[in-house]
Amino acid sequence: MDRRRFIRLAAGVPVGLAGCLGPGCARDGSLVPGAGAPSPTPSPGNEGVVVPKVNGGINLQPLRRLDPRDPDPTIVPDLVTLQLGAVYELGFDGLRVTAPFSDRANFLAAIPYVRAARALGIDAVVVLADFAGLSLARALFDDKRRPAVLRLYETVFAVPPAPVRPGLGGLGPGGVGRVAFQILNEPAHFLGVPPEAYVRELLTPCFVALKYDNPDIIVVAAAEVGNVDGPPRIRAMIEAGLEYVSDRVAYHIYSRAVIPLLSPHVKSLVWVTESGAAGTGLHLGWVRDTFVEIFDRIPDVSRIFYYDLFDGERGVYRLLDIEPDGPKFRAVVESTALYSFLADRVLAKAAGQPLLGFDALIPDIRAYFPTAEDVKAYDEAFEA
Amino acid sequence: MSPGLSVLLLALLADEPATQVRWPPATVPAEQAGETEPSAPEGLMYPLGALSTPDFLAPGDPFELVDLRYGFSDTFSTTHTFAARVRVEGWGYLGAGFEGERKGVTLTGPRLDLAASGENGAYDLLGRYRGSWLIVSTRARRSARSAGGGWLLDPSLSVRLSPDLELVGRVAGDTSRPDARLLRSASLGFFWQRGTRFEAAGEYVREYVSTDGRFENTRSTGTVSLLGQVRALELSGEAFLEDTAGPFPRRETGGSLQARLPLGSRLLVEGGARGRFEVGLDNRSREYRGALTWSGRRFILPRTGEAAERTVGLARKATEMGYNERRVFGDDERRAQRERLSLLRRREELGDDMAALYRAQVAERAVPLLGAEMLDGTDALAGVSSRTARLFVGVPWPPAWPWQASESAVPFLRLGLERGRETSGAGFRAITWGGSLTASLNREMDLVLRYRHIDPTPVEIIRGIGKRRTIELSYVYALGR
Fold first, then answer.
1. Which CATH architecture has domain A3-33+49-383?
2. Which are the contacts of B477, defined by CB distance < 8 A and separation ≥ 6?
3. Contact B459 A193 (CB under 8 A)
4. Taking CB atoms and an 8 Å limit, are A193 and B457 in contact across chains?
C-alpha cells in the first residue's frame, strides 16, 4: 500500500493507529530502538534541559486507535504519548498533522497532538484537509460556511496552550510552539482542483478570513504532489498570486529530480511540508544528503517536514512501527539508521547535558484531550 | 416568433425560385477541375423540396433575409439567442442579434467589415478594411468598469506579396498598462497557399504576460503549421516551441498531427494526436483522436475535388482584380467570401465562378450515415484525464438503408450519442451523456435538438454546482450555404 492509498484508506475509516509505552520501552516513555540504535535517553526525573530541537519537522497521523477499522472514537492516551514522545525526544521542532473536518473522530484526535506539541515549544502545522471527499473544500469555498469552519479551527487549535515550563525555545507566546494552518493538501492531485482555482477560490478567501481574525496564525499554502508533476502546478499557483495570499509557500519533494525544478525565485519562505524516500534503506541518505541538497539548491527553504513518523505500511516511509504489546502498545524503530542519525544530532547538541523526558514535561497527555467545548464547537460548526 | 412559425415561413422563402440564376461557363473547365461532374443543385430533392442555386449577385429589394438563427439553451436558466442578417440592396449586409444579455450588430460592405457588441458595460468592436494588397484590421475590447474598464487593442496588418503568399503582423496593447507596459504582444508571420493541396503558415510571437503573482513573464513562441494533400491522404500538422522568461523560466514544445484518408469511396478514416511537453519534465498534456465515417455517397476531401479547384480559381481571379482573397475550403468560409465578392463593383465578372463553385460544393456534399469517434486525453497540470466516445447514425433523403449508396442522396436526419468521462483528483469521475438530433430540411436550413446530462467535476462540486441537464434547440437558416 503506498502513501496515498494509506491516506485515502484512512479517510474511509477512523484511523485507529495508537500506541502506548509498552514494557519494552527503554525508559518510561522512550522508544525501543532497533539493534545498535542509540537513543537520546532522557533523564528520568525533573533534572535536565529540554531536548534541543535540531531535526526540523515531521509528519504524523492523528492516531486514535491502532486498528484503522476500529469505530470506537475513544482516543487511546498511550498512542498519543508514544507518537508525541518520539517527536519530542528526537528533537523535531515541528509536526504536521491533518485535522479532517468531515471526520469527527479524527478531527478531535488531532487536538491533543497539536496542543501538547505547542505546549512543548514545538510548532504545529494543522492541515485543513479531509482524507477523502470534498466536504471541507466545499465548505471553504462557500462564503456562508467558511467563517464557521475557520472559526472552529481557530478556536480549537490556534489558542496557545500554557507552556509546560519556561525556556522551551518555541517562537509562540511564552515560548510555546506556533500554529500554522495549511489550506488543503495537494489540491490538484487529491481534489481535482486546478492550481489557479485553488489560489483564487479557496486559498485567497481563507487567508483573508484567517488574517482578519487572528494575524498570528501562519497560513501555509497547499503543496502539490512531490514528483515531476508538482513543480508546474506550484508555478501556476505562484503565477496566480499564491505568495500574496499565504505566509509560507509549501513544496513536497519525493524525487530529487524536482529539486532543480522548484525555482529559488519566490518571495516567501518555503516549507517543504512532506519529503521522504520510499524504502527504509533509503531513509538515512535522503535526510542526510537530500535534505542538504534541498536547502542548498532552494535557498528559500527554511524547514523540511520528514514523511513520516508512523503509518500502516512496513518498509516504505515510516520511521517506526507500533505494535500491540499485551494490553498496551510499544514502538519499534524500523528505520534504525535514520533514527540513530537523528538521535546523534540531539545528543551532540545537548553536549552531555541531561535531557528532560517527555513524561517529566507531560505526565498525563489527557490534559490536552478534546474538551466538551471542543466537541460542542465541532458539532455546531459541522451542523452549520 | 416561435421556432415552428419561423421554420414554416423560411421554408416558404427558401422554396421560392431564384429569379436570376447564373450558370457556367466556369473559369475552370470541368475537365481540368477534377473528377466530379457537378450535378445541378436543382436536380436534388430535399425534405422541403428542390432548392435552386441562389443568385449571389441579386440585390436585396431593398432587403433580403440571408441569415436567421434562433436558439435556446436551458440548464439552470434559459438563454435565448437570436441573429438575423439581411442583404441591403447591393451595397452590404446588415446583421443584428443577441445572446442572453449580449447584443450586437454587424455591417459588411464591399471592402469594410464593422461589428460591435456589448454586455453589461463591456464592449467588443471590430473594424476591417480589405485593400487590393493589404488587410487592416483592428479589434478593441473594453472590459466592464468592475473589471478595470481598460481597452484591449489588437490591430493587425496582412500584406499580400503574391496570390499565394501573405505576410501578417499583429500587435496587442492594453490601455490599463499592466506592469506599466502598453504593448502586450507583437507577432510576425506568413501564410502560403500552393494550389489546392498545400498550405504552410508560420508565426513568431513575443508576449508580455502579466501574472497575478505581480511579475511579468516574457514569452516567445515560434509556430509552423503545414497541410498537404498527398494523393488520397490529407495530412496536417503543427509544431511549436515556446520559451518563457521570468521567475520560472521554462521551455515547452509540442504539436499536433492529423490525417484523413478515404478507404474506398464511402469510408473515411481519421486520426490525430496532439501533445505539449515541457523540456525536462514528462508529458504535459496529450490527446489522441480516431474516427470512422461511413457515407451514403462518394466522399470527397475538401482539397481534392472540383470545388477545391474552383476555390483556387475564384480566389486567384478576385485577387487579380484587386480584391485580395484567400483560398477557403469550408462551406461557411466560402459563403462569406461569396457575400463579400457579391458586393464589389466588378461582381458581374465573378458571378459565374461563384455559382460554379456553389454547384461543385453541392455536388461534393457529404452524406454521413454511420460514424464513431474516440478521444482520449490527459492534462498533467490540472491532473485530469478524459475519454469521450461518440456515435452517430444518419438518414439520407430520400430515406435509404445505410448500405445503400445513392449519388442523389442529401443529408436529412442525424442522431448522435456521446459519452464522456473525466477523471481527476483522487479518482473522482464525472460522466457526461448526450444526444442530438439534427434535421437538415434542406441545404440552408437545419433544426437541431441537443440534450446533455452532466455530472459535476470535483471543482464544480466545490463551487456548489451539481448534476445538470441541458436542453438546446436551435434553428439555422443560411441562404447560399
1. Alpha-Beta Barrel (3.20)
2. B6, B10, B14, B65, B67, B68, B69, B444, B445
3. yes
4. no
